[in-house]
Amino acid sequence: MASKSSETMAFYDIAMRPPIASNCSAPNPWKARLALNFKDIAYSTTWVPLPEIAQVRRDLGVPAGRKFGDGTDFYTLPILVDPKTNSKVGDSFDIAVYLQKTYPATGAGDLFPPQKLDFVFNPDSALLVPLSERTESEHADYSHFNTHVDAAFTAHTVLMAYNLPFEPNTAEASKAEFVRRARVSSWDDFEVQGEQREKIKESFCRTLGDLGKLFLRDTSGPFLLGQQASYADLIVGGWLHMMRGTLPSDEWEEARGWHGGIFGRLYDGLEKYTQVK
């Protein structure tokens, strides 16, 4: 674990069941963790139980970055606190932008190299938990890609939600919060089995096929730019880590092999950036 010195960044992630480091599965904290490791930044993780996230953000003075479809604030993680610059950043995309701008020469290189990121996903129905749109700013092409990748995976998270590895002491409160967000009647409404599950898996496979076409432009390596990883790969990688942590093992192995194994190779290729510190 990284030393908790005054120069070490504090990274806030969602606490899941022990062993926490093996069960962290939220996609946005994973995107930020991959970016921190890509840039070879010293940091230490603070694990926050899901019911305490809103208070932690308030205590740190980090406002909610998004809103739910009903207009209420959406308090989530990650948060990054950098004592060197006295900065607090509370969004995974903004964390990546901050790291590249503040520490451009560190680690494995540029998180945002120029590339064509023309993946678009328009869901057939409303997402399970609709959120406000991000405000486009720097690296708008990557931000647009992030929005559509998030929508593509979120449209199929019903395959994963029921198996989230909640921390036992706060599991019931966490489940109640998910029920509230999704406006369903009980936690059991998240369980999907049988023919319905197979249909959703087929839709998910088709959607990832459209995304996978971008990875076929350069087949020299597992990343969109071949051997060169970028934040676009980390965006997808964050969601792959959620899949790995929440899908039944046989379904994860099945998904790894979809479309010639594109996403299995991406997951494996990002392994060197997956240290949980």
Automatic annotation (TrEMBL):
Q: Which residues form the GST N-terminal domain?
A: 16-107
Superkingdom of the organism of origin: Eukaryota
Checking Pfam families in the record gives:
GST_C_7, GST_N_2
Q: Supply the PROSITE patterns for this chain.
A: GST_NTER (PS50404)
InterPro entries linked? Glutathione-S-Trfase_C_sf (IPR036282), Glutathione_S-Trfase_N (IPR004045), GST_UstS-like_C (IPR054416), Thioredoxin-like_sf (IPR036249)
Q: What is this protein called?
A: GST N-terminal domain-containing protein
